Amino acid sequence: MTWALAVVMALTLSAPSADDPWRDAITEGNRLRVEGRYAEAETKYRQAYAAVEHMAVPDSRVGASLNNLALALRAQGKLAEAEALYVRAIDVWEKVLGPNHLNLASSLTNLAGVYTASGRYAEAESLYRRALTILEGAAGAESPELPATLNNLAALYFTQGQYSEAEAHYTRALRILERDPTADRRALASTLSNLAELHRSQGRLADAESSLRRVQGILQQELPEGHPDLGTNFNNLGAACLAQGKILEAQNHFQHALAIREQAFGPEHPDVGLTLNNLADLYRASGQLKKAEEAARRAVAIYEKAGGLKNPDTAVALNNLASILVTQRHWEDAEPILRRALAIQEQRFGAESPQLAPPLNNLGLVLRLGNRFAEAETAHRRALRIAETAWGPDHPTVATALAHLGDLYRRKNQPKLAEPMYQQALEIREKAFGPDHPVVADVLNSYAVLLRQEKRKREAAQLETRARAIEARHSNANYLGSTVEWMALRAK
Questions:
Q1: Tally of CB atoms within 10 A around 372
Q2: Does 178 map to a domain?
Q3: How confident is the model at residue 162 (pLDDT cuts 50, 70, 90)?
Q4: Exposed e or buried b for every residue in 273-295, given b needs 16+ CB within 10 A?
Q5: What are the residues whose beta carbons fall under 8 Å from the beta carbon of 381, sequence distance 6 or more?
Q6: What is the tens place of the pLDDT at every residue in 363-382?
Q7: How many Cβ atoms from other residues are within 10 Å of residue 185's Cβ?
Q8: Same structural domain, 242 and 371
Q9: How many CB atoms are closer than 10 A to CB 329?
Q10: What is the pLDDT of residues 428-467, one digit of tens each?
Q11: Is 167 within a domain?
C-alpha cells in the first residue's frame, strides 16, 4: 500500500518594497503549490530565483527561492535536483542568518525528507535532530513551529521499525497542532494521516480508518474539489479498508483517488501509478487476477515512461506485478521481473541499502517456490544481513527474512536449522506488532508445520490453537492477499 508521509516547509519572506517581481513570483508559486500545481509552481519559483540570484551579497530571498523551488521539485519526484537546492539554501541561511534561525531549521527538515526518501536514514535523523534543537531553542518546546519536523522524524522512525518512537513523535506533533487554534489544518490532517499509517501497520485498523475519515473532513473543508491531497486521502482510506477486508469500500476509495489524480495530473503521472498499484493489490486480494495484472502492468508502464531504470518507483511497480504472477503460480515469469526491480534499486541506492532487503526476500521466496534452494538461501541471507545492519536485529524485515529461512530449511528437511529461525521471527514480530497480530499467526502456523513433521504433535497443536484464535479475531482482515507471504514495497 502507498501512503503519504511527509510534511514539508515552504518559506515566504517579506519583500523590501511593494513593487517587487521576486515577491510576486514567490507568492504566486506558493499559491500554485498549495493547489497541487507543482510544475507551474516550479516555473514561478525559478522566476523568483532569477530575480535575486545575481545579487552581490545574497540575502534571505535567495534562500527562500532555493528552498521553495526544491520543494516543488521534490513534489514532482525530482529528488536529486531538490537535494542540491536544499544544500545551497542551507548554506545561504547559515551565512545570512546564522546557525540558529528558524528558516535554517526549515531547510534542514526538508533536506532530511529527501534523505529519507533516498534511504539515507542516519543522515536524515541527524538533520532532523539538528532542526529540532534549533526550533526548541528559538521558539520553545510547544511551539507551532515544531510539528512538521516532529512529523517527519516520526516517519523516519516508522520506516526503521521503531514504532514506539514514531508514535511518541506523531502524538507530540498532534498535541501541539490541536492546542493551537491558528494551526494549519492541512498540517493537522497530514499528521493524522501519518499516525493512521502507523496504526495500520500495528494492526489497529479501526483507529487508522477513524483518523483518515477525520482527515477527509478537514481536507473537504480546506481544499477545492478535485485537489490532489483529497486523492491522496482517498488512496489511504482505500488501504485502510482493504486491510480490514472491506473490498467494496476500498475499491470505491481507490477509484475516487484514481479519478482525482488522472484529472489533476493526467493518466500517465506517477501518482496515478501509485493508485493503480493499490487497485492491483485489491484485485489480487479479491481473486480478480486478470484485472490485477492489467492494473499492475499499467503502473509499470507509467513508471518506466516517467523515469525508467533510474526511477525507484519503477522497482516498486515491478515488485507488485511479480507478486501477482506469484499468486498465479507463474514463478518463472516473476523471477526476471524481480531481478529488474533489484537492479534498479541497487543502481539508485547502492548494493548495501536497506531498500534492497524487501525485494531480496521476495526474490528468495520465488526461488524457493521454484525449488532453487541454494539461490533462495543466498537471497534471504543477504536480506537478513542488510536489514540487521541498517535497522538492528529487532526490525520486522529481519523477522521476515528469518521466517523465510525457516520455511526454506523446513522444505530441505533441516529442522535444527529451521526451528531457531521461526523462534527468532516470532519473538521479533510479537515485540513489534503485539502477540495478536496476523503476521504472528503466520509464523505460528509455519512453525507448527515443522513441529508436526518432527512428530511433536502436542506443541504443534498449541501453536495452531493460538494461530486460529488470532485469525478468528481478524477474520475480515487482508494482510497478505495470497497464500504466500509477500513484502509489499512503498513508493515515496
A1: 16
A2: no
A3: confident
A4: bbbbbbbbbbbbbbebbebbbbb
A5: 401, 405
A6: 999 999 999 999 999 999 99
A7: 13
A8: no
A9: 12
A10: 999 888 898 888 999 999 999 999 999 999 999 999 999 9
A11: no
Q: How far apart are CA 211 and CA 188, in angstroms?
A: 11
Whether residue 367 sits in one domain with residue 344: no
**Nearest residue to 86 via CA among 146, 17, 11:** 11
The model's pLDDT over 387-416, given as tens digits with 9 standing for 90+, comes to 999 888 988 889 999 999 999 999 999 999
93: domain CATH number is 1.25.40.10
The verdict on 254 and 271 lying in the same domain is no
447 domain residue, yes or no = yes
The boundaries of the domain holding residue 271 are 267-350
- Is residue 177 a part of any domain in this protein? no
| 298 and 287 in a common domain | yes
- Indicate the residue among 299, 331, 350 that finishes a domain: 350
Boundary of a domain, candidates 315, 350, 385 = 350
Which residue type is seen at 391? Answer: W
Q: For residues 274 and 417, state if they share a domain.
A: no
